[in-house]
Predict the 3D structure of the following.
Amino acid sequence: ARIREVEFAKSSPRARDCPRDDRPEFAVIGRSNVGKSSLINALVRKKDVALTSKKPGKTQLINHFLINKSWYIVDLPGYGFANAPESARMDWSSFTKGYFLNRNTLVGVLLLVDASVPPQQIDLDCANWLGRNNIGLTFVFTKCDKVKSAKGRRPDENIKHFQDLISKYYKDPPPWIMTSSVTGLGRDELLLHMSQLRNY
Ligand code: GDP
């Protein structure tokens, strides 16, 4: 499950521009500011690998990173905005949906969920949309090192609450992993999980 080599492969403006080969891939998604860039950088142990998609005003792109020349981590545009009023609706552009519905080599989606805040409707909506479309999902809780959020709840309390809400939709809830890009918590577990899904 080790990452020996990572190379930036491609930025694609549309789903149909993505690399055309048979290598399996994992898509990483989540709300803006969830800690997606930090997590990808921590996974591949490189600084700033995942910075491309962050530049403000830049066209939103699908970024493929090739791992060990054999599989991809795919950085997709974030959804929602940290300070915007809570929206109950998914605001993905059609190209993000197009990617999910048409990408045959997609092994699974890592849906990043900020464990330092209470459950957010837009994350639940996203999980439900993926579930309805039969897309394999793993919840990756980020920022689990945070002791206390502004609203006074601990990450483990927020995670429990989130799982209670999810269990109303799923008979068989998706797997989940607790992570921190600060302490490295969950990194090995996540890499092992992805290698198991690849070989499944
Ligand atoms: P992105 O917009 O999803 O790519 O989020 P970033 O990776 O840029 O992180 C957003 C903010 O959260 C930054 O201020 C990070 O320093 C912080 N952050 C990201 N991951 C963690 C984490 O695991 N723990 C803590 N405490 N902060 C984090």
Observations:
- The chain has a mean pLDDT of 87.
